[in-house]
Amino acid sequence: MLKAVEHVMEEKWVKMYIERWLQMPIQLKDGSIKAKEGKGTPQGGVISPLLGNLYLHFTLDMWLSKHYPKVSFVRYADDVVLHCNTKAEAAEVLEAVKGRLAEVKLQIKEEKTRIAYCKDYRRREKHKHVQFEFLGFSYQPRARKSKVDGKLFMGFAPEISRSNQKRIREVIRRDSIWINTRIGPEEIGNHFNDKLRGWVNYYGKYSKRCLRGTIQSIDRRLLKWIRKKYKFGTRKAVARLEGIKRENPSLFFHWQLGY
Question: Quick check: pTM over 0.85?
């Protein structure tokens, strides 16, 4: 780690402080002090993400570029996808990466690591795994419409993953604002719009089909809130919600986009 720091930073005082961070002992919950013994960076430390990226850049990225120059890859923090041309090449590279990580005292998470086949209209072979997740997206075979003739074809494309769909729905459902029936829908819109804007701008980069259904869960929760606030039945609550949309179509960020 310190060699990597020296390579990118000439100032000696920077190295000194980083070395102190790395050597600082840990205080456990029972109050006892445990030496770092040369392992890890401070959990939650502001410098830790930077040091982790720096370490992986020199121990993995540079190593891959040197030993497997024809294998393209993308890495975000400790999440990595490597693109190989054949299953045999993928198996070889995977074992080599495991060995390399062991050399630098790291290891992969076996339960999150797999060789996946990017099946589409050109690659039609059978494989156990034809899907993988990366940065909140699920990459897998999906029906797509051609921009040339409008016909459907099988593409290998990203879309928000099921786990992140579930997470967003849980965030919406568990928010304590739904308990408060003394406020109006304007306050609820102001409360959620920053989150909605973030979700839509990030996950909406690709297909919006699954994202649309997930985001619309806020409308379903809003419907329950209206029923509770006004003591309405379902039919009256739906009418009230439609009235709110007509009166203020920009109240919620996803309404502005036609969700």
Answer: no
